[in-house]
Design a protein that fits this description.
This protein has about 400 residues and is of the alpha+beta class. It is about 20% helix and about 35% strand. The strands form 6 sheets. Strands 15, 16, 19, 20 and 21 form a 5-stranded antiparallel sheet that branches. Strands 1-2-5-4 form a 4-stranded antiparallel sheet, with no helix packed on it. It has a 4-stranded antiparallel sheet with strand order 8-9-12-11, with no helix packed on it. It starts with 10 loop residues before the first strand and ends with a helix. InterPro entries: Ig-like_dom, Ig-like_dom_sf, Ig-like_fold, Ig/MHC_CS, Ig_C1-set, Immune_Resp_Modulators, Immunoglobulin_dom.
């Protein structure tokens, strides 16, 4: 099963001392393995005098935090730790019966060993279809140290999978993460080859194994829309361009921005993680946000949102360009040119028809006149029939 860093509800554990004899009473709640921040912790109790402390969350990926309550009462009281996590819709109550105890230490790692988590990240469409150099990433987090940790790769139809590059990072919360990157073949991945990442460490009861393959399901190409800065930013030094990409599947997608056909560094724009669309479909949507200077926007610079997704036709990219003065769309321009050519051909045909018609009429009139003149010149006297008719009239008279 593929594991990805996404919204995850927390696990909640009540904390109380094993034995104690004196007041004050201090109890705690350990909240761990959730993402993203924040969680909300509320304590409920019948104790009249109590104080609560919520400690900052730790962890670069899955989070861990603690909340503690202290009361001066020596008698046993009931305390309820209510934890809510809005992103996952989580709501839980843990009830603890208090006893006199020494103060608990605030750091949860002193009492609850930090769990090791592993995530397998698929190739980005940018690496797969544009750079033609796809890679899988196996990320191991929340390690105490990098010592004695082994990460191995296997391929479904070929073992071993190949040579992987491995690196480690020490974090400010005293944990270590290990990243193992495996180059894969473009054809193998596209055709559905499976891969496994196995993590072994002396602290683990058994190896952690994560498997991944190309996502299954009906492919759906993204729809891309680019929006200009809102009117409220007209007088600000920075303008915001927004690219909406929606109704695509699978969720793996890459977005780049260009200015006048030059690539803009990734550090200058931000793209959200894919979110599930509302409704019965399986599509996803994301937003990408680019900040540009007021001067560049006023100079009519062209900004392009480029989307790479496997459901798009070759070369698997779709671009939408925007500027302060919008340009005529190329398809509209071609359509107008085609209509203009058709209209020109029609008028040409009409001109030819009218010309031929006039020539025909002129020719007919000319021939008729020539015939009349010919008849007049040949018959200089009155025809015989007319003479006879005249004689008859004279006799009767």
């Amino acid at each position: 099963k593929t594991t990805r860093a996404s919204v995850q509800e927390p696990s909640v554990y009540p904390l109380k001392p094993c034995k104690a004899d004196t007041a004050p009473v201090t109890l705690g709640c350990l909240i761990k393995d959730y993402f993203p921040d924040p969680v909300n912790v509320i304590w409920h109790s019948n104790s009249p005098n109590m104080s609560t402390v919520n400690f900052p969350a730790l962890g670069s990926e899955l989070k861990v935090t603690t909340s503690q309550v202290t009361t001066k009462s020596k008698s046993a009281k009931t305390f309820t730790c209510q934890v809510t996590h809005a992103p996952s819709g989580f709501n839980s109550n843990k009830t603890i019966k208090g006893r006199p105890s020494p103060r608990l230490m605030p750091r949860p790692q002193k009492y609850e060993p930090r769990g090791v988590n592993t995530y397998l990240i698929p190739p980005s469409p940018l690496d797969l279809y544009v750079r033609k150099a796809p890679k899988l990433t196996c990320l191991v987090v929340d390690l105490e140290s990098k010592e004695n940790v082994t990460v191995t790769w296997t391929q479904e139809h070929r073992n071993p999978a190949g040579l992987a590059a491995q690196s480690s990072t020490r974090h400010h919360n005293a944990t270590t993460s290990i990243t193992s990157i495996l180059p894969v073949d473009v054809k193998d991945w596209i055709e559905g080859e499976g891969y496994r990442c196995s993590v072994n460490h002396p602290q683990l009861p058994r190896p952690i194994v994560r498997a991944i393959t190309k996502a299954q399901g009906q492919r759906s190409a993204p729809e891309v829309y680019v929006f200009p800065p809102p009117p409220e930013e007209e007088n600000k030094d920075k303008h915001t361009l927004t690219c909406l990409i929606q109704n695509f599947f699978p969720e793996d997608i890459s977005v780049r921005w260009l200015q006048d056909e030059m690539l803009i560094p990734n550090t200058q724009h931000r793209t959200t993680a894919p979110l599930k669309s509302n409704g019965p479909g399986q599509g996803f949507f994301i937003f990408s946000r680019l900040e540009v200077t007021k001067a560049h926007w006023a100079q009519n610079k062209k900004f392009t949102c480029q989307v790479i997704h496997e459901a798009l036709p070759e070369p698997r990219t779709l671009t939408k360009t925007i500027s302060k003065i919008p340009e005529l769309d190329l398809q509209d321009l071609c359509a107008e040119e085609a209509e203009s050519e058709e209209l020109e051909e029609l008028w040409t045909s009409i001109y030819v028809f009218i010309t031929l018609f006039l020539l025909s009429v002129s020719y007919g009139a000319t021939v008729t006149l020539l015939k009349v003149e010919s008849c007049t010149s040949v018959g200089g006297s009155t025809p015989q029939t007319l003479h006879d008719y005249a004689n008859i009239l004279q006799t009767r008279a």
